[in-house]
Amino acid sequence: MREACAHKENECQAGDVELKQKGNKTMKQSNQLNRREFLTAACAAVNIPYFIPSAVLAAPGRTGANERLTMAHIGVGGRGKGLFRELEKFRQTGAVKVAAVCDVDENRLADAAKEAGAGVDVYRDYRYILERRDIDAVVIGTPDHWHGVQTVHAAECGKHMYLEKPACCTIEEGKAMVAAARKSKVSIQVGSQGRSQPEAYLAHRYLVNGNIGHISRVDCFHYPSPEDNNPVPDSDPPPELDWDMWLGPLRWRPYNKRYCHGTFRWLLESGGGQIRDRGAHVMSCAMWWMGADGTGPVTVEATGTPPKKGLWDSAVLMEVTYTFKNPDWIMTWTQMPEEKLPPAEERTGEEPGGKIVRPGYGAIYRGDKGQFIHWGGDGGTWAEKKAREWEPPAGAKDVYKSPGHMEDWFKGIKTGAKTIMNIEAAVGVANLCILGNLSYILGRKLQWDQAKQEIVGDEQAQRMMSRPQRHPYHL
Amino acid sequence: MSMNNLKKASLAAPAILLLKREAAGGVTVGTDDAKKRSRDEKRSRDEKRSGAEKRSRDENREAVTKLLSKIKDNSDQVRTEGWLGAGEVGAAAVKPLAKVMTDENLEVGRAAKRALWKIVRYTGRPNAAREKRAVEARLLELLGDEQPVQVRREVLWMLSEIGGQNSINPIAGLLSNEQLREDARMSLERIPNRGAVKALKAGLETAPEDFKLNIAQSLRKRGEDVPGLACVKLVPTKKTNVKPAM
């Protein structure tokens, strides 16, 4: 891309200046360009007025089954850094090559550049990565409010994606992501990796074989979202952070250091609290094991307790009830005081998932012949002993056994097979989280039409299914 | 029966009943007396209504005073109880809360903002059109230049959730305000009526060059074709200073 710009630099027209867009004047502070930078970037914009799917990479299977995948990492701090490290073993075997890393925080980017080593390009703006035709796939580990926009853009450019969960922040984003993925036929794996854990397979198999009978209720439990006990006033962003890019699609507001990094999770608009963070794991297992991917509730009703001070506004304690019909079952999500959580099972550490290191969340499955409990639901998923020890009799049903979350994604890229946490399923789970939060925010029960993917009979809630996005960070 | 006739009939009913009752008792009552009684009854009803309205106003004033007192309290717990209960206080609290939003005590200002949002979310519920319009009207009064930018920005987003036709022109007026135009554009984008689309179209006509693509994007979101203004997602941004590892 840089070469292309160098070639085209003197072809820029005076009218190109209109491509330098901004919204409110207050939000351009961190986005000033010198003339040379501007001309270079404007050339890029002229060359590619909107994203064009890559001719080489748009169709799954075009990347040869034995070819090395060229990847870029978008967002390389926090969980993004974790994903970069998870892929190390695949880089070592030569299955994957990293070509670029990107972050809006210069410190994080510098760390990633160092860790990635020579020959890896660095970017602040992910869109320059999407332009590159030599990149097959991107790993998106950015804050949640960027997921929808980046997924749609990456799909439009024909990039396969590993996208950190939750898939989206609004119903509208989810619809656009599914549509873009279907159109471009890229393979997307969303990071609800609980589905790929060894004990998740055992739990799934145990449940679908009727060991606890007909399941009519799943109660998900989680410890509370935190309160901000150290609120601070707004301030200038630190010099290493491109605050405007960090905000991206969100409406502009002054920087406050309690927004980031990591703490974005505790704000309803960017992270959504525990329900959207861990709900995207625990409810993902529930939807998978209940065979409910592609279905949705008919009603959602939430209550909760807000934080008493500070910037963070996601519910500290929370109780959400999802009512499903045909088949009829209920799922609940409860953020409860730690002392009310179900006690974790004693283990030796020899079990497939080892000892339970995150006992603070999971779910209880209630059937007409008994109940089953699991803890975790993400990278750590621990099933109750009776499921681990169950020996399937002849004729028992088997279920899909993931080769590993990343491996399942690579299989999707190379064969076109649906990933275990494909974008449709992931949006379905994210929608549960979104609807739970919407009901909590509005203080009323919501009716949901799964076929139309719409809230019914509540105009304000319907408007809140989407959230207008700042130009140019939009779907 | 039309609504007007129905109202007239219900107002006249007591006098007619009285005439019938007195006629049955053998007492002759003149027409003038009946009219006088009817007038007296109407006056009495008006007084009652006016009294009820005054009581309601007093109660509202009292509720607003109580709410503000809680919002300004030193205790986190009391402030939280205050904003959580703000919804039912409604339109009367909108302007007083907006004043407190910029309080120098960060947490007091934050509680006031959350109380305002609570009102917006409560009055946006189904079958509460009258309450919603009352809150909308108060919010519109907060869009003027005399209000701090942070208040106006928040109000634009509140109107994006409950604003109707009455909100269109005041919001559209801010499309030319350099500090608020992007929020105004997004607010209009979300208001689901044709007036909002018309206002965006009109805004596009007069928008400066550096804002046309923003409005064009909103129009596309609303299903409009915007010839000549492509959907540009890649725009110049500042490059990183980080160098690749050698």
Task: Give structural notes.
Chain A is of the alpha/beta class and 475 residues long. Chain A is built from 16 helices and 15 strands. Chain B is mainly alpha-helical. Chain B contains 11 helices and no strands. Helices cover 68% and strands 0% of the residues of chain B. The N terminus of chain B is likely disordered. At the A-B interface, helix 2, helix 5, strand 3 and helix 16 of A face helix 3, helix 5, helix 7, helix 9 and helix 11 of B.
Compute the separation of the termini of chain A in Å.
Answer: 23 Å
How confident overall, as mean pLDDT of chain B? 88
Question: Biggest β-sheet of chain A: count, sense, barrel?
Answer: 9 strands, mixed
The share of residues in extended strands of chain B comes to under 5%
Helix/strand/pairing category of chain B: mainly alpha
Largest sheet of chain B at a glance? none
Q: Provide the gyration radius of chain B in Å.
A: 27 Å
Sum up the structure in keywords.
heterodimer, A: 475 residues, alpha/beta, nine-stranded mixed sheet, six-stranded parallel sheet, 15 strands, 31% helix, 17% strand, globular, disordered N terminus, B: 246 residues, mainly alpha, 11 helices, 68% helix, 0% strand, flat
